[in-house]
Amino acid sequence: MTDVLTDATAPRFRRPADESVDAGDGLLSPVARLEALCDPGSLTLLRSDVRSARMGGKSRAGDGVVTGTGRVDGRPVFCYAQDPSYLGGSLGEAHADSIVRVLQLAGRAGA
């Protein structure tokens, strides 16, 4: 595992899901964190268009979490990364549902 993933509480991990890897402040987006975790080119995002119906105009794609599948050292993985900048890092219904679904997929796949 690389150094960039060793401390999930470090400020560099606080970046909205829909922003770039480095917007000039050195912070990684949830997608960039998953890309750093997975083998190059192996990450496939799941349910990236999920939005909370209850949040109206405040909702954004992913609802504060990014889920996906990929490979780590050639082995299949199911992963998610949360976005603490979205609504203070709160976990809503759509957010939690995305996490549950990726964990269920992992269970069915025996990962």
Automatic annotation (TrEMBL):
It comes from the Bacteria. Residues 1-24 are annotated as: Disordered. InterPro entries: AccD/PCCB (IPR051047), AcCoA_carboxyl_beta (IPR034733), ClpP/crotonase-like_dom_sf (IPR029045), COA_CT_N (IPR011762). Pfam families: Carboxyl_trans. GO terms for molecular function: propionyl-CoA carboxylase activity. Coiled coil: none annotated. Residues 1-111 form the CoA carboxyltransferase N-terminal domain. This is CoA carboxyltransferase N-terminal domain-containing protein. It comes from uncultured Solirubrobacteraceae bacterium.
